[in-house]
Specification:
The protein is about 95% helix and about 0% strand. By secondary structure, it is an all-alpha fold. The radius of gyration is 28 Å and the shape is rod-shaped.
Length: about 60
């Protein structure tokens, strides 16, 4: 009777450990998703700034001719 109870307890413990690890993975995946979103927004802002600067530079170069 001892061994079946031990097997059940260890099985439950293993499932509990896997549940905790799954929650940790889920939280980290959400954090990574937020970081990717923030970085994408920063890259888009930088690209818009670069485009504006290039447009101004091109118009300045046209004025010098």
């Amino acid at each position: 009777m001892f061994w079946p109870m031990l097997a059940i307890a260890l099985g439950f413990l293993g499932i509990a450990v896997l549940g905790v690890l799954a929650i940790k993975v889920f939280v980290e995946a959400q954090r990574l998703g937020r970081q990717v979103t923030d970085t994408t927004e920063r890259i888009n802002r930088a690209s818009e700034d670069l485009e504006r600067a290039a447009t101004r530079l091109a118009s300045t170069g046209d004025g010098l001719r």
